[in-house]
Design a protein that fits this description.
By secondary structure, the protein is mainly α. The chain folds into two domains: about 40 residues; about 40 residues, no CATH class. It contains three helices and no strands.
């Protein structure tokens, strides 16, 4: 009846809200993990790029230090350090 339909709509809305909350929590946790990694390790490269480099180096027998990304070789001009994070 009408009351059962209302209960079902509320249940669906609750499920949708729980899903959205879980997705937001996962995104927040991923961002916090990446921030912690950058603060600890320091590179300006996303984690997937570092993993990809490790896999390439492992496959060809190189050390990761032997295969830097261009972003790791560049630096800001001394008068542009305000852009450093």
């Amino acid at each position: 009846t009408e009351l059962l339909a209302k209960v079902e709509r509320n249940r669906e809305a609750s499920t949708d809200a729980e899903y959205a909350q879980k997705a937001a929590r996962i995104a927040r946790d991923d961002a916090a993990k990446e921030l912690k990694r950058v603060e600890h390790v320091g590179p300006a490269l996303p984690e997937f790029a570092l993993i990809m480099r490790e896999q390439i180096c492992g496959a060809v027998g190189l050390d990761a230090a032997d295969l830097p990304y261009i972003a790791e070789l560049m630096d800001l001009k001394s008068d542009q350090t305000r852009w450093r994070t």
